[in-house]
Amino acid sequence: MTGAIEVLRAGPLTTVQDLGRPGFAHLGVPRAGALDGPALRAANRLVANPDDAAGLEVTVGGCRLRLRDARTVAVTGAPASVTVDGQPVGYGVPVRVPAGSVLTLGPARQGVRTYLAISGGIAVPAVLGSRSTDTLSGLGPPPLRDGDVLPLGQPHPVPSTVDRVEWRAPGPEIRLRIRLGPRDDWFTDEAIRTLCGTPYTLSPMSNRVGARLTGAALGRRRAGELEPEGLVLGAVQVPADGQPLVFLADHPTTGGYPVVAVVDAADLPALAQARPGATVTFHGPQR
């Protein structure tokens, strides 16, 4: 196999991701996909891939790969040093990598998730129309391990017309726009004012399933248990401790705690790139 990459060092969490498998929640299947979709799309455009081609999502710690044949690569998302056979190359630009060369991504300097696109895309078998790793259900390829070999698809014969992308790091405050509901009636008026008027802190317990927040607890108007019901991307669920949890791409499809609001999907990539300790604020209509 020549159209492939060898994983020399996988790093703490490197996964194959495309734009996910939405539309299967009724079967209990999460959507998965890149947490920073715009960054993956940008990387794919730099190497003339379709927007939904599979690339690698590299979490914080970097990785090292060997390309078995010559390919064009691009790195976007959280900025990191990029070298080919030890020589620095550009970030956010297309880079031609010779056959047999070693590509190294260093730790993220800002943000959390770096994206690597390779011309032709990662060609692992698709499951329900997607090649994404789902860390909750286990669908798709497992997280990368040292020694793995991943097949690559056929590169597009025409180079991309995009030659550079910029990345803006999340600021010190992550601002999330929300729509209240569907279970905001389970919470007191004071709780809603607290949600939309009090800063929260991003917990280090956050992952691809959800962003856990710590701060002022949200008090309930109603006691008792909620029957399990469907969850959507960006749902703000409030467990018994009153601390909000924002569900991300690998979220479960049902849950038994009330969802007080839903975050605008356009704001989720910044949340996915925020580091633990970041300040998170919610903005939306008051009751």
How do the strands and helices of this protein lay out in sequence?
Elements: E1 4-9, E2 14-17, H1 37-46, E3 55-59, E4 63-67, E5 71-77, E6 82-84, E7 87-88, E8 95-97, E9 102-105, E10 113-118, E11 149-151, E12 173-180, H2 189-195, E13 200-202, E14 210-214, E15 229-230, E16 235-237, E17 245-247, E18 254-255, E19 259-263, H3 268-273, E20 279-283
Parallel strand pairs: 12-20
Antiparallel strand pairs: 1-4, 1-11, 2-3, 3-10, 4-9, 5-8, 5-10, 6-7, 6-9, 12-19, 13-14, 13-20, 14-17, 15-18, 16-17, 16-19
Give structural notes.
- With 287 residues, this protein is mainly beta.
- The protein has two domains: 4-151, no CATH class; 173-283, Cyclophilin (Beta Barrel), CATH 2.40.100.
- Helices cover 8% and strands 29% of the residues.
- It is built from three helices and 20 strands.
- The chain has helices spanning 37-46, 189-195, 268-273; strands at residues 4-9, 14-17, 55-59, 63-67, 71-77, 82-84, 87-88, 95-97, 102-105, 113-118, 149-151, 173-180, 200-202, 210-214, 229-230, 235-237, 245-247, 254-255, 259-263, 279-283.
- It has a seven-stranded mixed barrel.
